[in-house]
Every structure is written in C-alpha cells, then in structure tokens.
Amino acid sequence: MYQRQIGTVTNYLVEVRDALNQRNGQRLANLLSHNNAVFQRNAQKLLANERNLEPEYVSRYIHGNSNWSELVSAHLKTCLSYWVDDDVMEAFQWKTQMVQAMTRMLSAEKEQNWFLPLMNQINIEIRILAMICDKEKNRHSSKSLKPDEHLEKAADLLMGVFRVAANDSRAPIEVSKRKGMIHIINQLFKIYFRINKLHLCKPLIRALENANLMHVFPLAQRVTYSYFLGMKSMFDSDFKAAEQHLGFAFRNCHPESHKNKRLILIFLIPVKCLLGQMPTQEALDTFRLTQFNGVLKAVKEGNLKAFDAALEHNAAFFWKFNIYLILEKLKIVAYRNLFKRVAHIVKTHQIPMDSFLAAFRFSQDDESITLEEVHCILANLIYEGKVKGYISLQHQKLVISKQNPFPSIASVA
Prior knowledge:
The protein is an all-alpha fold. It folds into three domains: 9-217; 219-329, no CATH class; 341-412, Orthogonal Bundle (Arc Repressor Mutant, subunit A). The chain has 22 helices and three strands. It has a three-stranded antiparallel sheet. The chain is elongated and about 95 Å long.
C-alpha cells in the first residue's frame, strides 16, 4: 500500500525517495517495476504529457548517489516506451540503461545489500523483455541473422551484475551482495537453456560452488538452481548427478506448486528409469504424465515394437521437453528385459543365439534383423554389466552366469 495516492510523477518520485530513505528494498522493487499496477492502469495519464524524465529532473527528488537518479530516470522512460508508446524495442533499450545504472550503483554501495529485491526484479524484467523483443523481431523476419540477439544482450548485462555481486567477498555475509549470486545465476540459466548455450553454465556453477554459500540462499532459489543443474547433468548423460539434483528440486518444491513439480518430474522420470527406478502409476496419474505409460510398459515387457510405437505416439510431447533422445536410451533396458524373458523360457544357462534372434524378430516384427545385430546388442549388454555371461562364437550360444545373470538396472547403472 502506498502512503499517498500517486497521481503525478512528482508523487511517484516522492514515494521512491521515501523507499530509498527507509532502505526498503521490497517496496523499491515494486515501485521500480514496469509491471507495477500504477503504470499498468495510469501510464497514459501519468507519463503521456511528461517528457522531462531526465536524471537531472529526477535528482531534484532522489538525492545522493547519481546512479539512483539515472536508474529511476531509465525506469520512467521504460514505462513510457512500454505502456504509452507501445514500443517494446525502445523499452528494452531503456531497461538496458537501467541495468547498467544498477550495476554502477551496486559497485558504489559498499557493505550493503538491502536493495537485492530490486536487483532481482530488474534482472527478471530485462530477461522477459528480451524474450518479447526477440519474439517480435523473429515474427517480422523469418530469416533473422541473430534470432536471440536481445537475450544475448540481456545475458551480457546480467554477467556484469553477477561479477559485481560475486566480487563482494570482503563484506560480512549479512550485508554482502554475494547473497544475490544464485538469483542472477538462475536468470542466466534460463537464458542459456533457451538459446542452447549450456557450456556457459559451467563457470557459473564453479563460482557458486567456490563461494560455499548455499546454506544462506533462500530454498526457493536453491530449488530452481537444482532444477537447472539436474537438467544440465541429464543432457551431459550424468544421470546419477541428474537424479540427485532433480530429486532435491522435487522434494523441496512447494507442495502447492503442482505445475512446477510436474515439470521437474518430466525430466526426473526418464533419469530414474535409466537408473532402474520406474515410477508408480499413481504418480503418473497424479501429475498427468500418462504420456510415459506406453513407453514404460514396453520397456518392462521387452516389447521393442510397442516401445517404438509408444515413443512416436507422444513424440511431440517428448521433443517439446527435449527428452525424446533420453527416452530412446531406455531401449537398451528393453533389450535386456527381452533377453531375460528368453532365458526364463529356455531354462538353461547356455542359450542358443537363434533363440534370441527369433525373439528379436518377433518383438520387432522384422524378419530382416540379422544374427550379427543380435550379437552386437548382447555384447553391449554384457559390457555394461546388464547381462552376466559371455558369447561362445564357436557354439553360437550365450553362456550366462548361474547366479543373478540379469542384475537389476539399479545395481549396474
């Protein structure tokens, strides 16, 4: 709630000045957001005829560090461009100047971090504005040479903010800007994942690990960080690390954040399956993830044709979340389960290769499959420890161990 009704720019600047004097970071973040309700409802009335929004004018009300006057001036021009002139590109340019002024302010304000809520708000808004600008640009140019131009610019600006925060190591942690490191990293992660530059995440991860401050960050930010760390580990094929990070994110996600928990599970389910942990049907139903049903059923049964069909049936969903290729890796588990069924049927530890070939052709409904292909698949399964045994080429048999020839996937993952 505002103490005074904001009907003019002067009223607004008095509110900003009061928030600054009180060092009320959250109130300042609300006031300096271009999505503030005041500007959404009254921007035309408040700013349309008010073109003198220069720092010199603002400094009449905002005293002290000139970076604050420049920051507030850039904010007002952002609102003018966004809400009155309907020019999102120009709004982004003014928001850029706002971030630059904020970065200078962060450097100038020693042993203080009360303004971190404002920093966090500005970081979010520059990223979102950049997304809108790139979408608008790509809509008007089907062959844009720089499809992510604004997001890359936003990332550069956020890296500038991050360096200032990360280098504030001399201040006591209670007043250190390093408390804002994880929020900046999460915004950068969102950009890097969107523009497919995941290699840029590594220095940020290393910097946060070296800071050794995870215990001081808010749980919500740690959950977001773990989510992205889990996805990166998954794409790097480090499935154990992915399970650890995504599991932390899922367990600590707010219980009422059903949408976020579902999003985490979309990545956690394939990872757990590759580690030999199948989800329950109750979990799939609860989070509306029945798209996985066909694939998981086919894997359990070792039904290769059904596996391919189920993967293609929900291909649009799997590609949307970039997990199609991850799920394809489950086919090796389906192979293992098919061969295990064959072993149970023949009931001997010396299994003719022709038995596997027949089962493979039947399961794939493909008579063109050769014995060499079956040899290759079995050799891979043995190498990975999913089958205990060896292939006797002389007798064309698979000789399996008499004790636990098909170890659980979890034990060998």
